[in-house]
Amino acid sequence: MWLWATIKAPGAPESIHSTITLFGNSWISVSGFHADFAFTVDHLTAIMLGVVTCVGFLIHLYSVGYMAHEEGYWRFFAYLNLFMFFMLVLVLSANFLLLFVGWEGVGLASYLLIGFYFKKDSAANAGKKAFIVNRIGDFGFLLAMFLMISHFGSLDFATVFSAVSAHPEWHGGFLTAIALLLVVGATGKSAQIPLYVWLPDAMEGPTPVSALIHAATMVTAGIYMVARSHVIFDRSPYALGVVAIIGAATAFFAACIGMVQHDIKRVLAYSTVSQLGYMFLACGVGAYTAGIFHLLTHAFFKALLFLAAGSVIHALSGEQDMRKMGGLRKRIPVTFWTMTMGVFAIAGLPPLAGFFSKDEILFQAFVSPNPIGKLLWLVGLITAGMTSFYMFRLWFKTFFGEERFEEHTDHGHGHDDHHGHGVHESPLVMTLPLMVLALLSIIGGWVGVPAALGGHDEIGAFLEPVLSPAVTVTEVVSHSTELGLAAVSVLVALLGLFIAYALYYKKPGTAASYAQKFPALYRLVDNKFYVDEIYQGVIVTPLLMFSRLILGTIFDGGVVGGAGYAAGASTRGLGSLVRRIQSGNIRSYAGWLALGAAAVIAVMIFGHSLWLH
After folding, report:
1. pLDDT at 11
2. Which end of the chain is less packed: N or C, by CB atoms within 10 Å?
3. Total domains present in the chain
4. What is the model's pTM?
């Protein structure tokens, strides 16, 4: 509520900035390099704090009911709060090094939470996959920090950004290298091409974990980092172009996969990857405010969608396949109506939150000076239609049509806390967060209503002291163009709704018949374009073969094992030789004694003569 009041307040201060340093000035000081354990709060941090704490609290509350009968209940909340702690460290940090501490911390916590059901191989493997893929991105982030230390001698935000601002002649070069390496880190954390593969598998964790990772915390860290580093990115059009292309490609690619998924959580997972692509696209065309605005609204409706999906799974005793759902709107009405708000919001229908933030991104892409800005807009527009289609597909298959589920009276996966009651609505501790998030999904975008639609873009004004303003155009062109593009976007969203209605409500078997007509294309998309199989064949398998052959057989078996064998053999040989001295023969002992005495006398005489010389 403080954040909302601050944004809406007409007399809000022009700049909010406060920094506090802990542990004095001696956290890290090595060879002239110095880093403080410092936290800072400014306008961008305020937005992120509001998102993380608000949505995080609601997910905590929901988890009390959802995880009530799970083994490891206390362990779950310990991991969940560890996750929150590191995310808050990340967004509050005043330098890249402390940001990296939070960055790695959320990576560790995500590994623990995704692999929460560690007795299941799929969950354990998903946790390891998330951890390893993120380490690839983190390597790029580390290299970027090394370059910053080399060129600026500091990792402090204020020092680095002021140095860049003080040299307007700096363009490209090492700044491009730093920006591209930061992009590598961001693609890992925010699940963009080519490092997006860990996020869909993160569904193996409990549903509240999916909501927390996808909506308010970990995956938004990459977007936050790029926006925070916009001073560097603004000096590298090449790096911005890479960000925009990666974002547009990821948004479209993930939306394609999301259209054919049957697991309700996996549809939402690919939706998250796609929506993060929108945020990357915004940053890539210089519209950082639009990217953060979509981060804000996405946190509301994506958390709502995941938690509502969890309520559906809870009602069906662990069932996640939409082909085994249907007709649930009357059985679980609160879940139905709240999830409906989330579906309409992410589809971009006015006046819900997703409409304003998504249209702002599309508008900024269209009017940006980027040479391929119009193409990026077209890809984003097509993706918007696909998003509307697969979300209404989920909506129709889950809540409408005939009931395709079986009544369960047992505990299933442990999510059902009403024995013998069959399909039922979730308890209040779970539905209350859904209601709050549904309200936020409706009104959350009103802080960014543009002037073309009669608003004042309060969030843009609020973030202006921190983020450079988006591309400016004349007021006449801006208003007319924005209204026209908004109308086109709404029509595309309605088209997606109509197609989903025709295929999954009016004539439910039509989609399956189309899949049979184009079996090769359907298999390609259904198998996620075989990206995981390609990675397995091209990267993972050769790496395992190399490590087992070179490191396992040759190095471990040959060098390490051989050295151990040689040490043992030499010890045994020396022992067998020395053992002969202990023969029990007195004459042998006397001989060895005489030999030893002679050796000692010879050493003393020889050493004395060397000392005299």
Report:
1. 44
2. C
3. 1
4. 0.85
What pLDDT is recorded for position 191?
86
At 415, the pLDDT band (50, 70, 90 cuts) reads: very low
Residue 218: inside a domain, yes or no? yes
Q: Is 27 within a domain?
A: no
493-500 average pLDDT score? 94
- The pLDDT assigned to 4 comes to 41
Sign (positive/negative) of CA torsion 122, 410, 303, 247?
positive
Distance CA 199, CA 258 (A): 13
Give dist(CA 338, CA 342) in Å, integer: 7
Report the alpha-carbon distance of residue 190 to residue 272 in Å, rounded: 9
SS3 content of the chain, % helix, strand, coil (to 5): 75, 5, 25
Looking at residue 168, its amino acid is P
In a domain? residue 393? yes
Q: Which residues pair with 34 in a beta bridge?
A: 29
Q: How many residues appear in the chain?
A: 613
Extract the tokens encoding 247. Answer: 């974002």
562: tokens are: 């051989």
Domain hosting residue 493, numbered range: 32-509
Model confidence over 565-585: pLDDT tens digits?
778 778 887 777 777 667 777
Instruction: Report residue 202's pLDDT band, with 50, 70 and 90 as the boundaries.
Output: confident
Q: For strands 37-41 and 33-35, give the pairing.
A: unpaired
* Secondary structure of residue 579 in the 3-state scheme: helix
Distance CA 317, CA 305 (A): 18
User: Taking a C-beta distance cutoff of 8 angstroms, is the pair 211, 340 a contact?
Assistant: no
| pLDDT value of residue 408 | 56
Residue 120 has a CB neighbour count (10 Å cut-off) of: 12
Q: What is the pLDDT of residue 394?
A: 93
Cα gap 259→397, rounded to integer Å: 12
CA neighbor of 270 nearest in space, from 393, 181, 355? 393
Taking the C-alpha atoms of residue 218 and residue 196, their distance in angstroms, rounded to an integer, is 13
Q: Which residues 6+ apart lie within 8 Å of 288 measured at CB?
A: 226, 227, 230, 282, 463, 467, 468, 470
Measured CA to CA, the distance from residue 142 to residue 244 in angstroms comes to 22
- Quote the distance between the C-alpha of residue 579 and its chain's center: 65
Query: For residues 480 and 40, is the Cβ–Cβ distance under 8 A?
Result: no
Q: What is the pLDDT of residue 478?
A: 60
* Residue 549, in any domain of the structure: no
User: Which residues are CB-neighbours of 199 under 8 A, at least 6 positions away?
Assistant: 130, 191, 213, 214, 219, 269, 272, 273
What pLDDT does residue 612 have?
61
Question: 48 pLDDT exceeds 70?
Answer: yes
Is the per-residue pLDDT at 500 higher than 60? yes
**Could you tell me the pLDDT band of residue 377, with boundaries at 50, 70 and 90?**
very high
Point out which residues pair with 41 in neighbouring strands: 18
Q: Are 493 and 348 in contact (CB under 8 A)?
A: yes
Confidence (pLDDT) at 421: 54
Residue 361 CB contacts under 8 Å (≥ 6 apart), including other chains: 278, 279, 281, 282, 287, 290, 291, 294, 380
Q: Within 33-95, where are the H helices?
A: 43-66, 73-92
